[in-house]
Amino acid sequence: MATRTPPSSEPRPSAETGSHARRRAEDLPGVAKPRRYLPRFHWELLFCGVSGHELVGMGAARIRPDDALFARQEGEVRWLRCLRCDSWLPLHAPEQPDCETPPARDQIELPIRGRPLRDLVILRVIALKKGLLGVGFVALALALLLFSSRRDDLRDRVYTALGDLGAAPLENYDTGILHWIHEGFSLDEGRLLLVALALVLYAGLLIGESVGLWLQKRWAEYVAFVATSALLPFEVYELTVRLSPLKIVFIALNVAIVLYLLFAKRLFGLRGGAAAEERVRERDIGWAALERGAPAF
To answer: pTM score, two decimals?
Structure first.
């Protein structure tokens, strides 16, 4: 007599079960499909790639249910969430834990993220640009002072060397580097000192802007906007006199800096001003921002 195989006790998959599984899969870190046509640059990933992830709970002996926002235990695998870039990393529990549980939320210092992190990167790039220019102007002022103290000796040597190279008398040149060399040697000592003083003062302004922007001070953003926009008419005029790729690059950078400070940093009350800027910071930084981006399990 044939023996009938008893029906399997395992439940058959249903459409509802499959859709639930798909929803759970979409909530897993790293598998959610993007909802934007244009890719979004993640400044957090740039920072984590340079300085490493911000993980909490690596050395804890056990993970509590209250830690699910940044640490979860799935069998033998422990998932830890980077507090900066939201990446979830699978790690094994430590063989020799250094604490019983992860620290409480009020004991965790959250890293900067979101738009404030983007602003930090851009402002520090601008600060480096202005700081390097300031140092360059200080070096130029020192060179002018040294030149002023030894101008007569240097003039004889430079004119003799250029004559040996076949150059015509420098007073015959109306443009170019030889013309500027002649103009420099023609200036009196008092005017050279005034030029050096002006360079030092402008360098001090640039270095002050650089320090303020590096520290993300609001006053430095206003100073940088006024100082950069005030030079744009002169730079445009220089383009009408003589066009060069370097001048175009510098003008494009300065225009981008002015537009960024004016609109992205909401200067002079634009787009809600400082109050709106503070609301953006509060939205992107803090535990509420982490809770909005946490997957549901």
So the answer is: 0.74
